[in-house]
Amino acid sequence: MKEIFLCKCGEIVLKGANHSFFENALIKELKFRLRSYGSFKITHAQSTIYVEPTVDVDFDAVFSALSRVFGIVTIERAAVAEKSMESIAEVTKEYIPRFLEGKKTFKVEAKRADKRFPLKSPEIAAQTGGFVLSACPRMRVNVKEPDVTVKVEVREYAAYISAGSFKGAGGMPVGTSGKGLLLLSGGIDSPVAGYMMAKRGVKIDAVHFESFPYTSERAKEKVLELARLVTRYSGSMLVHVVSLTHIQEELVKNCDEDYFTLLLRRYMMAIAEKIAKQNDCLALITGESVGQVASQTMQAIAVTDNAVSMPVFRPCIGMDKEEIIQVSRKIDTFETSILPFEDCCTVFTPKHPRTKPEIEKVLTEERKLDFDALVEEALASAEQVYIPAEV
Ligand code: ATP
Ligand code: MG
Fold first, then answer.
1. Which atom of ligand 1 sits closest to the CA of residue 293?
2. Contact, 165 vs 187, CB < 8 A?
3. What is the pLDDT of residues 371-383, one digit of tens each?
4. What is the 330 CA–ligand 2 centroid distance (Å)?
């Protein structure tokens, strides 16, 4: 008996004339993600992608890899039968009982995509129900609230029999929405922000700001580890590591302490925008959330935004910390994020940061330094680290 995965495409089905662009991107990504798990025949028809192992594979490992691929809403593990009720009977009796262990009730849903098949869907469902009962006589049919739903789909080349579908990663295939530059700190929020934009099909590059020797080599390693964890969803990532040490020292020497964080954030944005432009990124991405800290009040965010002209995406903006943590646990970045290393934002923090800054006052402070020259100097210090996609 042959088992395969049926991956149902999500939103990309709605893309009309463009849908083959999205489907091809998804298939390319699937091929890439599965290449170390064996050999597969990947085909698609009627908004479903068929992933058929051509050698023995570890089904659980393949399932786990598939569940991180954006663009797939549900994943079904199914057995393949020939397009006859005899074959459907044989496969149902052999394949389905394992999914009914410890369960009491079931129903069968049938779909006949191939209208040439002689039986209609209700008849296929009724007969298949009989096959299930003959293999597992203690089971009862319950069409309203079954413990298990057995599905039979008669499609172009074969019939597929499954018992239960699993949630896929959702979203859009990575790379179908262009590229964005993620400002990646060692915190909880920014890896989540990167994941959320990757989910919408955005390819991610990242910039991390360090402040060596005030921040340590291990703090940087932690951020690169976070980047690696995000690549399990987003694909490979180029991380630009930029030193803010000189800028921070100049701020401390010359500017009003209350404005340190805001001024530093404006430098970060300006540097990030330059890196973004050099690397074909169309937007900046941050993990900010309204009101979370002093630099994330509406007024402070306006001051930060004013440093750049590129769109800034903040996917966590309306989320509570608890909600962000939930996502970070789901994508496995939480445990790394909470490792206690300093961030450049946490060295030289003002005692009384301005929460309702006025842009004119910020600019007055900013003009005390040669902003452009410091930005250029920081850019010249940038080091690039390529993080291959973890599959
Ligand atoms: P957490 O509250 O979990 O520490 P955070 O690091 O996201 O999250 P902030 O320090 O307030 O919180 O930073 C807000 C945003 O600014 C971050 O989400 C990130 O996008 C960006 N950022 C902060 N520090 C850095 C850094 N050192 N390098 C790159 N981006 C940074
Ligand atoms: Mg932080």
1. 11
2. no
3. 999 999 999 999 9
4. 19
